Amino acid sequence: MILRLWPGTTQEDVSALRAMLEREALRTFLSPETARPIVAVVDKVPEALARDLAAHPAVEQIVHPQGEWRLVDRSYRDEHSVVNVGAVRFGGGEVVVIAGPCSVEGADFMHETAGRVRAAGAHVLRGGAFKPRTSPYSFQGFGREGLRQLKDAGEAFGMPVVSEIMDAAQVDTFRDFDVDCLQVGARNMQNFTLLKAIARAGKPVLLKRGLSATVKEWLGAAEYLAAYGCPDVILCERGIRTFETATRNTLDLTVLPLLREWTHLPVVVDPSHAAGIPSLIPPLSRAAIAAGADGVAVEVHPRPEEARSDGAQALLPGELARIVADARVMAAAIGRRFHPGPRRARSGQGERAG
Ligand code: PEP
Ligand code: MN
């Protein structure tokens, strides 16, 4: 249950209300919202107490979320959440582009790719160092060394970096290299031990939707992160399993307007893993932005035929530039802006997205 208190309710009254609930062994969270106090009661409220709360003079409105979440519910904030990944804002009304290879494939490769995606206008650099591969015989990623190469390339071109974390034991490694955003992959969306561990890492999380996860399960996973200390969650729709086999997955754009109603969290779309086919990615990127996505995340490789994973769906840097140009147009068409980009590149090697 979410208690939306009247604007102007004093801190003393908020504390008294929370103390009253805590005495009944009900855990409460106070929203960071500044326009009014909002209190989430995360445990089930007995009926008699619910009636008292409805009549309480400080309570303007009681909201019951659509599913098993509280802190990520739309009603827990008045505004949409803004999540900062380095100097890049997600959810602030500006459209953001995350781009990079599926896997980090070496220091020189990463430097070259970072320079090219930056020049094409991307804001955040992606690259997997710990890879969740379907086959144990496929390239598993360079691990720790890959994170170093990713971060070095990101710093060289003034881009924050995002990379997938697969195991709670990797948190320290991600911290060592100051990875700006931790990606939870589709295959790990409901790995609750992992979610609890990374929630305490102090970094924003890109939470991909599970292969067959419902929106309710996905928001439940986001709630784990928020409840265990990480309010900075970016949701990522990356296609779901359906009967269709012509594409790798089915991009579910329906969730974009739905999530706007159900949660305050920013949402990005990954059309690369959804479609699996490069020619489909530009139109799907445009559609995602038109439907309200806060950004897109795409895989780019300068030589897709040499890629060690997901080469078949990789875009060329020139194709990314086209997606960025379209993103600007689409953003303007729906009254949004294209993110101006991280402010400064180190040692002048990067280019501004403008
Ligand atoms: C990836 O981003 O490379 C990846 C493995 O994505 P997903 O978890 O969505 O399959
Ligand atoms: Mn991939």
Order of strands, main sheet, comes to: 7-8-9-10-11-12-13-14
The count of strands amounts to: 15
Separation, N- and C-terminal Cα atoms? 44 Å
Total of DSSP H or I helical runs spanning 4+ residues: 11
Question: How much helix, percentage-wise, in residues?
Answer: 25-40%
Question: What structural class is derived from the secondary structure elements?
Answer: alpha/beta
The parts where pLDDT drops under 50 for at least 5 residues are 345-354
Q: How big a fraction of the residues is strand? A: 15-25%
Radius of gyration (CA) equals: 21 Å
Q: How do the helices and strands follow one another from N- to C-terminus?
A: EHEEHEEEEHEHEHEHEHEHEHHEHE
* Biggest pleated sheet: 8 strands, parallel, barrel
Mean pLDDT metric: 95
Q: Which distinct ligands sit in these coordinates?
A: phosphoenolpyruvate, manganese (II) ion
- The best one-word shape is elongated
Structure explained in plain terms:
With 354 residues, this protein is α/β, with parallel strands linked by helices. Helix content is 33%, strand content 17%. It has an 8-stranded parallel barrel, surrounded by 7 helices. A 4-stranded antiparallel β-sheet has the order 2-3-1-4, with helices on one face. Strand 8, helix 4 and strand 9 (161-164) form a beta-alpha-beta unit. Residues 345-354 have low confidence and may be disordered. Phosphoenolpyruvate (PEP) binds next to loops. The site of phosphoenolpyruvate (PEP) has 9 residues, from loops.
Task: Briefly characterize the structure.
This protein is α/β, with parallel strands linked by helices and about 350 residues long.
